[in-house]
Every structure is written in C-alpha cells, then in structure tokens.
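Progress note, sequence design subtask.
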C-alpha cells in the first residue's frame, strides 16, 4: 500500500515538475518573441523542416483518412436517404476534428521528435553549455525559431489537410457510388460555416505551440547520457499526443459549442 502511494506521489511530482518547466520555457520564449529577439534565417530553416518536410506525410494521412471516412459516411447516408449531404458531412468533420488533430499528431511524430533529438544531442555533447559560455541564450537561439515555425506552419498544414481530406472523400464516393463533383461539393458552401474552418485553424495554432514547447523541453532537459536522447525523443512524442488530445477537447468545447 505504501509503495503504491509512493509511486503515485512520484508521478504527481513529475507532472508538476513538467508543468513548471514547460511553463517557464514557454514564458521565456514569449518574452524573446515580444522583444523581437528573432533569428530570421534559423526560423525559415525550421519552417521548412517542420512544415514543408511534414507536408507529404500529412497529405498521405489525410487523403486516406478522408477516403475511409467518406466510404462509411456514404454507406450510412444511402441507407438514410441523405446522400446529398455526404460532401458536407466529410468537410464538417475534417474542419472540426480530423484535419487539425491528425495533422498535429503527424507533425508531433515527425518534427516534435526531431526537436527533442536535436536539442538532446546538443545537450549531451555540451553544445548548449558552449552557447551559454558565449553569452548566447539557448532559448533565443534554439527554441524561438522552432516555436515560431510550428506556430506558423501547423495551422497552414491543418488547412491544407482539410482540403486534401475532402478531396480524398470525393475520390472514394465517386469511385464507389458514382457521385459527381457537383453533388459532392455542392452541399458544402451552404452548410459548412466559415467559423468552423477558422476554429480548426485556431486549434492548429495551439497544437503547434504544444509540439514546439514539449519537443524543445525534452531536448533541453535531457540527462547527460547517450541513451537518454532516445528516451527524451520517445517522451516528446507521447507527451505531445496526450496533450494534443486534451487540448483538442478543451478547444472544441470553447470554440465549437
């Protein structure tokens, strides 16, 4: 019994430490951004790494997700006599949930893990300590570019994901039911609200912040051992996915009541 309580207390303390460390890191990052302490070239490089390099896997993920979802929606809609709303149902779901959430998970798995691995390797090889000896703040030099890159590119990827997912849905419904483009896309403009799409993009902003802060945190707080880099990378992906799901619930309630 005492061991179970001790284990629970240990998890609670770790959670509080994680919350405090990430909050401090986020605050320091915001301070640098607000003061204009931004390195343009590293930020552009990170935007290419986080956004452009993640686009192919996001596109493949959303294409097949849209096709699978549309297949089930078209089947049920035909049973209920509501085939004219298939396009809207797919677009609504993509914009509300699947687009931003799946995009964030893909980017977390690819870019978030890369952030943790890169910064973790720098920590183990004492490159971060070298930055401090040269009077360079690691947060400004390493975290801010990754933070801005994720903040900007993840919402853009979420919007692109919506379009690809809806297009994949059309490909599937056209192939399985013979639905034309006018039938599929015609139901979207009159039913899909602009705010629904905007809310999905706003979700992408928060998801991008989570990916950048958690990925950089795990890298910066890596212990000085080579095997710890792999563990930090794994933790970064797991924590990102858990926090993305939790944030998605909160944002859905707040933005889409």
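Output:
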């Amino acid at each position: 019994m005492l061991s179970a309580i001790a284990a629970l207390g240990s998890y609670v303390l770790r959670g509080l430490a994680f919350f405090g460390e990430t909050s401090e890191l986020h605050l320091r990052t915001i301070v640098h951004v607000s003061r204009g302490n931004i390195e343009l070239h590293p930020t552009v490089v990170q935007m290419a790494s986080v956004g452009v390099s993640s686009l192919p896997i996001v596109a493949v993920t959303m294409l097949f997700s849209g096709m699978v979802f549309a297949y089930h929606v078209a089947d049920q809609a035909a049973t209920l006599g509501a085939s004219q709303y298939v396009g809207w149902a797919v677009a609504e779901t993509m914009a509300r949930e699947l687009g931003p959430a799946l995009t964030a998970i893909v980017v977390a798995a690819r870019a978030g893990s890369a952030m943790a691995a890169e910064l973790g390797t720098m920590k183990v090889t004492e490159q971060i300590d070298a930055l401090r000896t040269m009077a360079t703040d690691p947060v400004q030099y390493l975290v801010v570019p990754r933070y801005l890159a994720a903040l900007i590119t993840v919402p853009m990827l979420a919007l692109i994901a919506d379009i690809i997912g809806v297009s994949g849905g059309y490909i599937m419904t056209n192939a399985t039911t013979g639905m034309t483009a006018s039938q599929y896309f015609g139901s979207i403009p009159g039913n899909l609200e602009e705010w629904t799409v905007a809310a999905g993009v706003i979700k992408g902003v928060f998801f991008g912040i989570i990916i950048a802060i958690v990925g950089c945190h795990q890298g910066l707080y890596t212990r000085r051992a080579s095997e710890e880099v792999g563990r930090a990378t794994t933790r970064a992906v797991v924590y990102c996915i858990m926090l993305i799901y939790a944030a998605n619930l909160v944002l859905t309630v707040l933005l889409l009541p």
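Residues 4 and 10 are 10 Å apart (CA to CA). Work on this subtask will continue into the next period as scheduled.
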